[in-house]
Amino acid sequence: MPVIQPASNPVSPPVSKPTSRSRFHGCLLGGAVGDALGAPVEFMTHAEILERFGAGGITEYAPAYGGVGTITDDTQMTLFTAEGLLRAWVRGVSSYPDAVARAYLRWLHTQGIRPAWHADLILAEPGWLCQQAALHSRRAPGNTCLSALEAMMKLGEPARNGSKGCGGVMRVAPAGLFAWRHPDQRSPRHAFDLGTALAALTHGHPTGSLTGGVLAALVHELADGATLPDALRTAKACLAARPDHEETLLAIMHAEQLAGSGVAHEDAIARLGEGWVAEEALAISLYCSLVARDFRHGVVVAVNHDGDSDSTGAITGNLLGAMYGEEAIPREWLAPLELREVIAELADDLNSFPTWGVNMDSGNEASAGRIGSKYPGF
Fold first, then answer.
1. Whole-prediction pTM value?
2. Which of 96, 158, 220, 222 could join 322 via S-S bond, C-beta 3.0 to 4.6 A?
3. Cβ atoms within 10 Å, residue 51
4. For residues 161 and 276, what is the distance between their CA atoms, to the nearest angstrom?
5. What is the CA angle 20-22-25, rounded to 5?
6. What is the DSSP letter of 159?
7. Start-to-end CA span in the chain (Å)
8. Phi–psi pair at 344, nearest 5 degrees
9. Of 56, 46, 65, 110, nearest to 83 (Cα)?
């Protein structure tokens, strides 16, 4: 069976140091690109992918969900994560899990499900993101996310299940960006705690939430210009301080070991798992990011395997996009990307939100009105 051989000497692409705006765009757009590339093959085995797309596997967008470059629930929920955090900031709400839980219930509504609890509350002022018609489409949402949100009686409370599916970690990259820009919470520890709490809204197993903390801390450090190995050291230190971290830490260490082993990518990913559960999705994405020669190479490796290709593609895209910036993403992948402008606008808002209070306090009524309308009260 044909395999994609590992890079003998992975290097960063020859681009200038990205700006913070470029890294924020890169993280969110890169995640969406990886998601869209993996969407057509999410439920296919690697052998089936090779049979359909040839020896190199899938390397360009293919039709999925009635289009090309279409996103899945991974990107949908990532966008609502960002929107919830921004609405919390605008309203001066300190409980970010509460605010993001409201955002996830708005996402649940876009999936055609009226929440059993809080429906009138969360739908009273739906806001800008809910008005994007393309989001009102089911893209194979995870059953755990749906059931946990339907059962959420108290906003912001952790899920009462034992799930460690990847539906928590795959959506929390905005937590790392938000913490990096927050004037009072710019630390990897804050990012880790926030990512963990947001993943725990739907996934009650420690691994299902701690992996979210790791991804948020990694994104925080990459946004700050750290190398991936340095970011990993910081994220692992945050992880090791939390109870029940062993399963997640072992998966990360396995990914690091395989990235330096010279084992063929196909075999290395098979040893890490299929990505349906959180520690496997995180480990596969870390492996692909560590061996990546550039953004394209890393994301292509991340989607060509048995299992949850769109989630590993999305997480890898988040990491490589934050590292390399938007300029590293192939133009032919960005051009047809569904909701590209919406994703870029949310990235801009995450990068600029600390200045909004200054604008509103200075009497800029037009700016204050625009922001208040876009991210209204709850």
1. 0.94
2. 222
3. 10
4. 17
5. 110
6. P
7. 54
8. -65, -40
9. 110
CA-derived radius of gyration, the chain: 19
Residue 368 lies in a domain: no
Q: Is residue 206 part of a domain?
A: yes
Backbone φ, ψ for residue 157 (5° rounding): -80, 145
pLDDT digits (tens, 9 = 90+) for 11-43: 444 457 999 999 999 999 999 999 999 999 999
Instruction: Please tell me the number of Cα atoms within 13 Å of 331 on its side-chain side.
Output: 0
Q: Tokens for 352? A: 């600029």
Structure tokens at 278: 């959180």
* Domain hosting residue 184, numbered range: 21-79+164-354
Asked if residue 8 has pLDDT above 60, the reply is no
Strand partners of residue 63: 68
Assigned domain for 35 exists: yes
Rounded distance between C-alpha atoms, residue 17 and residue 189, angstroms = 25
Q: What is the CATH number of the domain that holds 278?
A: 1.10.4080.10
Does residue 89 lie in a domain region?
no
| pLDDT level of residue 119 (50, 70, 90 thresholds) | confident
Main-chain phi, psi angles of 277, to 5 degrees: -105, 160
CA distance 314 to 320: 10
Q: What is the pLDDT of residue 372?
A: 85
**DSSP per-residue codes, 260-314:** TT---HHHHHHHH--SSBHHHHHHHHHHHHHH-SSHHHHHHHHHSSSS-HHHHHH
> How many other CB atoms are found less than 10 A from the CB of residue 254?
19
In the chain, the number of structural domains is 1
The pLDDT of residue 365 is: 54
Helix (H) or strand (E) holding 110: helix 96-110
Please name the residues in contact with 137: beta carbons below 8 A apart, sequence gap of 6 or more.
Answer: 65, 110
Residue 364 in contact with residue 372, Cβ under 8 Å? no
